[in-house]
């Protein structure tokens, strides 16, 4: 399902990608990469609080992944990229 979400984002369909990631997390709430990728999408959409929550959960699940803390810090500091187009 993560691959599907990545393809949807590449096609500019971020809302659909978020739904896929939500289903992925519902099925496997220990899949920290799904939280990471959902956080990235939310970060790029300017949904900073939601991105921080996703990164916090990813960090809880994978505390030895230092890049997760870097992503969280970016969410705390504000926008890093323009929001992608959303065709969905």
Q: What layout of secondary structure does this protein have?
A:
Blueprint: H1 2-10, H2 14-27, H3 32-44, H4 48-61, H5 66-77
Describe the structure.
The protein is mainly alpha-helical and 88 residues long. The protein has one domain (2-77): Serine Threonine Protein Phosphatase 5, Tetratricopeptide repeat, CATH 1.25.40.10. The protein has helices at residues 2-10, 14-27, 32-44, 48-61, 66-77. α2 runs antiparallel to α3 (32-44). The longest helix is centred in the first third of the chain and has 14 residues, at 14-27.
Summary of the model, kept short:
The protein has helices spanning 2-10, 14-27, 32-44, 48-61, 66-77. It has 88 residues and is mainly α.
Number of structural domains: 1
Which regions are unreliable across 5 or more consecutive residues at pLDDT < 50?
A: none
| N-to-C SSE string, H for helix and E for strand | HHHHH
Largest sheet: none
For this structure, what is the CATH homologous superfamily? Tetratricopeptide repeat domain
Helix content: over 70%
Average pLDDT score: 90
The shape is globular
Beta-strand segment tally = 0
Q: What is the radius of gyration computed over CA atoms, rounded to a whole number of angstroms?
A: 12 Å
CATH architecture: Alpha Horseshoe
Measured between the Cα atoms of the first and last residue, the distance is: 18 Å
Structural class: mainly alpha
Please, how many helices?
5
CATH class: Mainly Alpha
At the fold tier of CATH, the topology name is Serine Threonine Protein Phosphatase 5, Tetratricopeptide repeat
Beta-strand portion reads under 5%
């Amino acid at each position: 399902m993560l691959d599907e979400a990545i393809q949807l984002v590449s096609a500019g369909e971020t809302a659909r990608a978020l739904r896929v990631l939500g289903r992925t997390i519902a099925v496997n709430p220990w899949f920290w990469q799904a939280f990471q990728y959902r956080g990235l999408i939310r970060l790029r959409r300017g949904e900073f609080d939601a991105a921080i929550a996703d990164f916090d959960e990813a960090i809880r699940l994978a505390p030895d992944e230092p890049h997760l803390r870097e992503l969280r810090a970016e969410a705390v500091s504000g926008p890093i990229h323009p929001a992608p187009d959303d065709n969905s």
